[in-house]
């Protein structure tokens, strides 16, 4: 008689881990679901006790009110331009600076790197007045350049890239490329960049989400409605006398959808790149 296969035993620890992950996932998704529920209900359904816990039928009405109140699509377009340009600029400039700090020896390198790290400890609000004066003198008020240009340099991005390049780009590989006649930029472009794609994906997610959600600086320098980013535009949904929570949450929900899509795309790229980097010959 053939031996019967014994059923696999599921350990108690594995059950606990999966249960914990399931609970954490539900708790993470619930705020987004709750925002969607409020975006699909009328104001009276949101304000009653207990509030509605299932989606309603006011999604189109609430979003129509959003479009009639603010230039929603124009603000989304402005935010997409600003977030994309800043993210691309940060990835290039910060990786270039990180490569220089990690692989080049030059006078004052450590002092300059420490100075960059010190700037991470300074609250960004302290730089609002000097930046505003500079932007005013450059005549960049109500122009997206007022957000894009100051956003190109990121101290955390330089630190992140320097640490990643130091750990994952061997000095021997850089030296061999230089012996073969490669310039410093070609070593960066052909040797470093293919290795640091996971770092690119991680920094892109962080920077894109930060710029997309930034409110204070765009509020200061973008006064005309045609130049508003989405976070500044959403402020126009709040009325001092009558607050339509369904309309507000509808605008907030649809403003979050592009961010979720970009995050998922970059997250997949990050996981794939990290998996490739984990395979060693």
UniProtKB/TrEMBL annotation:
Entry-linked PANTHER family: ABC TRANSPORTER PERMEASE PROTEIN MG189-RELATED, ABC TRANSPORTER PERMEASE PROTEIN MG189-RELATED-RELATED
Name listed for the protein in its UniProt record: ABC transporter permease subunit
Segments forming a coiled coil: none
InterPro entries found in the cross-reference section: MetI-like (IPR000515), MetI-like_sf (IPR035906)
UniProt main location, coarse: membrane
Membrane-protein topology: Multi-pass membrane protein
Keyword entries, A-Z: Cell membrane, Membrane, Transmembrane, Transmembrane helix, Transport
């Amino acid at each position: 008689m053939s031996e019967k296969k014994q059923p696999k035993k599921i350990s108690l620890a594995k059950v606990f881990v999966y249960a914990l992950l399931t609970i954490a996932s539900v708790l993470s998704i619930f705020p987004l679901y709750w925002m969607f529920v409020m975006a699909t209900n009328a104001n009276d359904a949101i304000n009653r006790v207990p509030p509605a816990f299932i989606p309603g039928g006011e999604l189109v009405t609430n979003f129509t009110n959003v479009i009639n109140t603010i230039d929603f699509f124009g603000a989304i377009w402005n935010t997409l331009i600003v977030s994309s340009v800043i993210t691309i600029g940060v990835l290039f400039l910060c990786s270039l600076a990180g490569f220089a700090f990690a692989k080049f020896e030059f006078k004052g390198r450590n002092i300059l790197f420490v100075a960059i790290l010190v700037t991470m400890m300074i609250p960004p609000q302290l730089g609002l007045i000097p930046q505003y004066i500079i932007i005013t003198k450059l005549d960049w008020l109500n122009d997206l350049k007022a957000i894009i240009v100051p956003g190109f340099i990121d101290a955390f991005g330089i630190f992140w890239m320097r640490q990643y390049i130091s750990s994952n780009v061997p000095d021997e590989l850089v030296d061999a490329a230089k012996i073969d006649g490669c310039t410093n930029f070609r070593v960066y472009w052909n040797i470093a960049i293919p290795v640091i794609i996971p770092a690119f994906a991680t920094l892109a997610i962080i920077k894109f989400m930060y710029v997309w959600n930034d409110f204070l600086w765009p509020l200061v320098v973008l006064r005309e409605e045609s130049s508003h980013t989405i976070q500044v535009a959403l402020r126009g949904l709040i009325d001092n006398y009558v607050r339509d929570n369904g309309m507000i949450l509808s605008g907030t929900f649809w403003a979050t959808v592009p961010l979720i899509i970009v995050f998922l795309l970059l997250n997949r790229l990050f996981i794939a790149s990290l998996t490739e980097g984990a395979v060693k010959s």
